[in-house]
Predict the 3D structure of the following.
Amino acid sequence: MCHIALSEQAGGHRTVRAMSIPQERRLVTAIPGPKSQELLARKQAAVPPGIGTTLPVFVTRAGGGVLEDADGNSLIDFGSGIAVTNVGNAAPKVVERVQKQAADFTHTCFMVTPYESYVRVCEKLNELTPGDHEKRTFLVNSGAEAVENAVKVARLATGRQAVVVFDHGYHGRTLLTMTLTAKNMPYKQGFGPFAPEVYRVPLAYPFRWPTGPENCAEEAAAQAIDMIGKQIGAENVAAVVIEPIAGEGGFIEPAKGFLPRIAEFCRANGIVFVADEVQTGFARTGDLFACEDEGVVPDIICTAKGIAGGLPLAAVTGRAELMDTVHAGGLGGTYGGNPLACEAALGVLETIEEEDLVGRARRIGDVMIPRLLAMSERFDMIGDVRGRGAMIAVELVVPGTKDPNPAAVQEVVRRCHAEGLLVLTAGTYGNVLRFLPPLVMPEHLLEEGLGILEKAFASL
Ligand SMILES: *Cc1c(COP(=O)(O)O)cnc(C)c1O
């Protein structure tokens, strides 16, 4: 299942063998084992507690659908480093390209002396992102930096200042992007004052919409639009920034019709519609980009996470007429579009295409959703099963109510981790289990992971 690349490349660059890891769950110690515990103690002494740890095993190798740790355990990975290793860890095409690039040159600064791979990544994103209008792309280092730059472009291009974001939104941890983020704890608590001219409106959250999911899209859009008109003034709004599926907020897929309605309102009012596809991008949801599901064409799209297999890279892709308004030197950064990261991104895009990872993501959803729906019949603490492709979640409630049940989430997570299945949590109320397997995960591991999850629920 895991590929091996031992190749002599053109140009005489020797490439080191890409990892070939047995695609199996294997527990040889308790989780975490003694070596990981020793490393954890060193971490605690050297790294501030503000940097959390979801599962304290220290990784030594990873690939396909597994993570291997310092004690020799092999864990099933339902996290992909938070939706990053969509093509798998150490994907052969990524490894090969990065190794060659590292031997050629590691940095020049694209703003000082450019190189082709940066331009190639931008050409590919201009071609692959939704909409056939003329586009431009520039590269930065992180999702937050991409979102922050999208706002800079939108403000300059419109001459307006206000930015509208949504309940449950997550956009990063810099001053502006934590301001754009909805949830206080842990992202904002004590870190104020926040950036000005940020306004929050309702999101069409079907499971929790007061009048029920049928009315959700229409009512939420009407409320959001009314608030923009009455509280801000549409003519003052530079950008509306939205995740097509809210990630950290709990994998909330806005009710169908909501996104197109908001995009249409933006178009009618000269507001830049910014899609934050940092978590939803690069085949994760069963489309290359999640906006495609309802045919929404953003004015600017921000990408990161899945873009480069884990090398730090992010992109801002937008309408040429917006992007070209920025004066020379107004955008950039020392490392943005680092050559290793660009080569990794090209390897990711090749892998997505050659291995049909869009199709694989859909297949993962087709396997997971029915299994989870069956579990929701059996376990009444599962209030909602949702998501698309390989971006799937369950929301846990106190049985018989819709009250959030974060304690049950913590307990399920604990049992899954002890059994060697890495799962992540999310949600404004901390009551969502989210599943983000690498798209290359072999199906037997996917099934085994779901079995562990089911056992965890059954044992509660
Ligand atoms: C992770 C994330 C970000 C921030 O990306 P970083 O690379 O961590 O800065 C922004 N938006 C969304 C939707 C994300 O999931």
